[in-house]
Amino acid sequence: MSLDTLLAYLGIHRHDPHSLESQLQAMRHDVRRLSNMLGKQTGDWSDRAQEFGHMAASHGREIADATGKQALRGANMVRRDPLPAIAFVCTALLLSQLLKRR
């Protein structure tokens, strides 16, 4: 009677690191560990993307506010004195016509 047989009869199994069962168990452990690591990494990426989105929205709001103020300022200037705006538009039209001819 071998030692393995005696231990199996008593319900005690020796752990053979080269057995197929041990290798499968080690692979399951590695897959579980990798899955946990990827889950944490994905969570980090999600948090960073959300933070970036909030920052972009905030900056977009600031740019929209500044653009709106400049547009109101320009409209008020044209309302007070429309001559420079008319001269600018006419000059732009004349320049575009001259460039088309070439």
Number of strands: 0
**What is the helical fraction, as a range of percent?**
over 70%
How confident is the prediction overall: mean pLDDT? 85
Percent strand equals: under 5%
Total helical elements: 3
- The coarse silhouette is rod-shaped
Succession of helices and strands: HHH
Radius of gyration: 37 Å
What ranges have pLDDT less than 50 throughout 5 or more consecutive residues?
A: none
Helix/strand/pairing class, anyone?
mainly alpha
Outline the biggest β-sheet.
none
Distance between the termini: 105 Å
What's the number of domains?
Answer: 1
How would you briefly describe this protein structure?
This protein is mainly α and 102 residues long. It has one domain.
Explained architecture:
The chain is mainly alpha-helical. The protein has one domain (17-101). Helices cover 85% and strands 0% of the residues. The longest helix is centred in the middle third of the chain and has 61 residues, at 20-80. The protein is rod-shaped and about 110 Å long. The termini are far apart.
